[in-house]
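Dear H.,

Thanks for agreeing to be a second pair of eyes. The structure we're designing against is below in token form, covering all 469 positions.
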């Protein structure tokens, strides 16, 4: 992948991760190179996700801020669980110290729930770390639109690294890029090629009917077709969002934008009722065994898959390391494909990854910008170490097309480059809408009498309540 290869990610007016040509509609992209130019003094403006070229209205930052700062400590807080030789907590601070001996980077890494709670507390107290992890659009408690609207995020338009990036609408608020992110995250279907071969499945399913046929062949051979960790209800999003990008957004890319204006509703016929019915069919036919999955957590489902006890699982590129590990079944080859659409014109659920924002109250805004520019320049030692983690699928830079597991994700990147990629739904919804969807869907597959209509009505009611808050 070449450094400046165009990767279309987002339709601004729909708040969708897509250039819509080839999957319905036209594109309103926000080119990061334009953002960089406008940061140098060109006037510009735009609302959140507007696609307009961002502008700070000021001069470029001091590119020698760190060199002139003396001994300083920059603080950073991210979410996740630290591992051995962890990138954020070990490698990154060491590499920054090698580059700038006068800089100490202190990184705190907290489990997701703790991170959200701590971030809220620190922002309220005015003692926020200099660099924080933020999500695109409206996704979660660290959603960049909400944080930027509250004035917590510094504009990043003058970062040199933006010149490598394309279409940053999902992290652009009121004309300002507020998150530095270099990659995309994918939702797809991991599968066991050995089981597929044994069941006579010679090609990845290209339509929904072919997918159902493959599931039946697998079930007839005595294997569990799909395993999910539905006890952790968030994993329900992994399948539902793949279906939604095909059955909703490919037909109306502005669907989520129109939810906010009231022009569409979750209860509209042929939208979420279709998505939920299709996903529920997998449970009704036993392709996903609710009696098993409702008692399995996400990590347990991954273990079931790598141990060869199920042919498929819906999960993200972010869990590739765990899903490609060798389990009790020994080594077997994995594949990865998007859940196919009913029509066969399949799109992919692909979005901008979470990235890094600078707290507007930091004493070291220019120093943090210089650090981020080094990190995301596409060739530095930090960049190479970041790619080597396998946690991101980079859209530019040295080694992007040879990073871990890239071949597995290449078909998704191709769909993305064709404009056949859409956002994860929760990025465009007020946080909590997806929780209602998960809870009610779990009730339905758990046999509690909840219907598809109950779910869509519940989602609509929750969405409206959250918008009114």
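And this is the sequence the design step returned. I haven't edited it by hand at all.
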């Amino acid at each position: 992948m070449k450094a400046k290869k165009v990767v279309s990610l987002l339709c601004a007016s729909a708040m969708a991760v897509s250039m819509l040509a080839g999957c319905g509609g036209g594109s309103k992209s926000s080119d990061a190179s334009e953002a960089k130019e406008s940061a140098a003094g060109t006037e510009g403006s735009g609302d959140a996700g507007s696609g307009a070229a961002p502008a700070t209205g000021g001069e470029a930052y001091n590119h020698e801020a760190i060199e002139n700062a003396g001994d300083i400590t920059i603080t950073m807080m991210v979410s996740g669980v630290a591992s051995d030789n962890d990138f954020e907590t070990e490698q990154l601070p060491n590499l920054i110290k090698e580059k700038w001996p006068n800089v100490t980077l202190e990184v705190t890494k907290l489990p997701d729930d703790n991170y959200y709670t701590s971030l809220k507390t620190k922002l309220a107290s005015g003692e926020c770390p200099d660099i924080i992890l933020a999500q695109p659009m409206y996704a979660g408690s660290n959603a960049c639109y909400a944080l930027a609207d509250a004035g917590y995020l510094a504009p990043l338009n003058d970062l040199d690294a933006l010149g490598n990036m394309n279409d940053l609408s999902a992290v652009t608020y009121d004309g300002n890029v507020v998150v530095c992110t270099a990659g995309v995250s994918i939702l797809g279907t991991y599968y066991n090629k050995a089981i597929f071969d044994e069941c006579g499945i010679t090609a990845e399913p290209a339509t929904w009917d072919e997918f159902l046929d493959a599931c039946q062949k697998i079930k007839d051979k005595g294997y569990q077709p799909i395993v999910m960790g539905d006890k952790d209800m968030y994993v329900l999003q992994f399948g539902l969002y793949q279906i939604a990008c095909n059955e909703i957004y490919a037909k109306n890319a502005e669907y989520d934008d129109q939810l906010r204006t009231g022009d569409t509703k979750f209860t509209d016929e042929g939208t979420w009722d279709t998505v939920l019915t299709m996903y529920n069919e997998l449970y009704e036919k036993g392709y996903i065994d609710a009696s098993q999955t409702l008692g399995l957590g996400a990590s347990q489902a991954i273990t079931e898959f790598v141990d060869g006890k199920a042919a498929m699982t819906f999960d993200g590129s972010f869990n590739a390391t765990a899903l490609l590990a060798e389990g009790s079944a020994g080594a077997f080859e994995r594949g990865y494909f998007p859940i196919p659409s009913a029509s066969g014109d399949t799109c992919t659920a692909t979005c901008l990854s979470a990235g890094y924002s600078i707290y507007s109250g930091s004493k070291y805004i220019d120093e943090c910008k210089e650090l981020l520019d080094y990190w995301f320049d596409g060739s530095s030692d930090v960049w190479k170490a970041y790619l080597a983690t396998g946690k991101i699928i980079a859209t530019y830079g040295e080694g992007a097309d040879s990073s871990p597991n890239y071949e597995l994700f290449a078909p998704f990147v191709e769909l993305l480059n064709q404009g056949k990629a859409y956002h994860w739904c929760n990025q465009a919804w007020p946080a909590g809408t997806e929780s209602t969807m998960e809870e009610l869907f779990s009730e339905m597959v758990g046999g509690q009498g909840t219907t598809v209509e109950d779910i869509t009505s519940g989602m609509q009611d929750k969405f409206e309540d959250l918008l009114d808050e």
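Two observations from my side: The longest strand covers residues 183-192. Residues 12 and 50 are 5 Å apart (CA to CA).

Warmly,
E.
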